[in-house]
Amino acid sequence: MLLRLFLLLSVLGSSWIGWVNSHQESGEWSCETNEEIRIEAGFRPGFITLDGHADDWKDIDAFDASLLPALDPDDDKEYTGGKMIVKARIFFALHDGNDVFFLLQVDGNYAYTKGDNHKCPSVALMFPIGDEATYHNMGGCKEGTGTCNKKTCKGHEVDIMHFSVGNAIPGRLYGGNPLDNGEGNGGDRFGHLVDLYGWNPHCRYLDGTGPSGNDSSGQNNWKGAWWHSSFNVHSGFVEEDSPYTSDGQKGTYFFEFSRPLRTTDRLQQDAQFTIGGSSKMSVAFWYPVDGNSWHGSGHYSVNCDWIPLDISPGSSMVKATTRGGSGDVASAFALLFSVFSICLSVFVGYRATRSNGRYAPVADLQLPTRSSSAS
């Protein structure tokens, strides 16, 4: 099914959104879904540093998937992105019992134009919220822009994270921040890593905003960073370093994200994840092919239907959290300490049985008395 969502949002000021061209689907929709794709978020506490680098993901299972046009997902139209981008390697995902982490890795020539999101790569993740939310038509509500609302589209809600990097410094964190969260919306005035919800491609809004008015409890619960392997500076960039490297450099893009498993949402605008439970998700990617600006409907996806997402319970992944021999040493020390404690307890008990079997009352204790010369 089609991922028609993700028309580029531009947050100007605090919460105003400028919409780009809406896509139009031509012909009848058809989809041959890849049923072999399934994502498991294993339990790995203290494993990931959210910095856009993939070094800490090297031991995590991943899958490769072709990037296909969302509007026409046929194999003969596989995304080549300037004859370089051909595959997306997806490390989905990990959780630490509190947050869930995602990494999207895409091979591609470096393309970046500061301040112009349409001439930089862009990434989005989408999750169903309502029980009737479909992948095709971004939730699938039949209502139009004048009639869609939380009543007429109830059950079709989807949760969206969209990261456009035109104003985002590589390696820096973006997403939820005190200024936008303080105003009660899912915007990000600094790097455009925004938290959205929607019912169909023409009815999507920042969290906390909508056709029925704004709500001050809206929040951006996402954080994320990006990087490109052609960068030769690892100590960190600042805005004045833009464009960070020259265009056309071969390499790989990395997009790393995190979000709490459960959020404080009370507006039906965030998907909620449960340890040991299952959910669904999708991935979209935009790229300025041959330097041309991309448009909202010109994105590519790894599948034409929802991808199953399993949040593994911690008990099934405990062994995986041990790296090298440090875990074995810790276990051996714990065992030795336990044996020592038992032996000490037995010894104390034995000495106690050698006494008269009772504690001497205070009156029986021989207390020293002061001599007359000391007075």
Automatic annotation (TrEMBL):
- Pfam families with a match to the protein in the record: EB_dh
Supply the name of the protein: Cytochrome c-552/DMSO reductase-like haem-binding domain-containing protein
Instruction: Give the signal peptide as a residue range, or say none if absent.
Output: 1-22
Alphabetized UniProt keyword annotations: Electron transport, Heme, Iron, Membrane, Metal-binding, Signal, Transmembrane, Transmembrane helix, Transport
Question: What Gene3D superfamilies has UniProt attached to this entry?
Answer: 2.60.40.1190
Q: Give the organism, scientific name.
A: Salix dunnii
The transmembrane segments are 329-350
InterPro entries found in the cross-reference section? Cyt-c552/DMSO_Rdtase_haem-bd
**Locate the Cytochrome c-552/DMSO reductase-like haem-binding domain: which residues?**
54-301
